[in-house]
Amino acid sequence: MDTPPLSIPLYLSQSQDCDYLPGQKSQSAFIDPAKAVSADLYEHLLGLGFRRSGQLIYKPYCENCQQCVPCRLPMHSFKASRSQKRIIKLNSDLTTRVIPAKFNQEHFDLYLKYQNFRHLGGSMEKFDQTSYKDFICGSIEQQASFIETRLNDQLLAIAVTDIFKHANSAVYTFFEPEQQKRSLGTYSILKQIELSQQQQKHFLYLGYFIENCQKMSYKDNFKPLEIYQDESWSIKEPLIKS
């Protein structure tokens, strides 16, 4: 991997309403969008807790909240749970393929349907084609791929996945909301894990774990989950259920 620079200037975004925690404000530290970032450097930044949205590389930087915790799965030790094995069996009639991350009207229509059902009123609800292309199809040095899931000819899910030398990164997943019994979100992560293991990657990065947000806390269902705190990675302790 290329040796990263010793320091990278960061900029602070304006405060806005948090998409994940009601009543909270959020801010991010981000790299100048005009700065060229190589795939090797971005993979290094993943290991420091950064993520991307389109080509914007950022890290949560909220003054009074540290609930967004970077997380990843070590591929050599991941083991599917009983419920995850059931999901794999339930969806044995589906087919998946890995394709380039390019705009497709069928994908865009599914994305709009997913947003209208799952995230009504969220910041991503009113995306037009240009915003969609920037967010879903944009990537770092064309490292993104789509894992496309279908039932016969019907498109059911798209998992945007960055593929690097030593690790993969789950960027975003959207799926058919009328197929809730299939647990397509979990199934898509399991397919990303399968791809990462086939490619002999060390890790699959899952973004941020947020314990008090149901949309983000599901990541704790994948074991062993590693989290990045105090500038180091460690196995996350199980949640204590009340």
Q: Biggest sheet: strands, sense, closure?
A: 8 strands, mixed
- What is the third-level CATH name, the topology of the largest domain? Aminopeptidase
Strand content: 25-35%
Would you identify the regions where 5 or more consecutive residues have pLDDT less than 50?
Answer: none
Q: Kindly provide the radius of gyration, computed on alpha-carbon positions and rounded to a whole number of angstroms.
A: 17 Å
**Major sheet: arrangement of strands:** 8-9-10-11-12-7-13-14
Shape: globular
Q: How many distinct folded domains?
A: 2
Count of beta strands: 14
The average pLDDT is 92
Number of helices: 6
Helix/sheet category: alpha+beta
Order of helices and strands: EEEEHEEEHEHHEEEHEHEE
Superfamily (CATH H level) name of the largest domain: Gcn5-related N-acetyltransferase (GNAT)
The CATH class of the largest domain turns out to be Alpha Beta
Q: Work out the helicity level.
A: 10-25%
Key traits:
single chain, 242 residues, alpha+beta, Aminopeptidase, 2 domains, 8-stranded mixed beta sheet, 4-stranded antiparallel beta sheet, 6 helices, 14 strands, 24% helix, 30% strand, globular
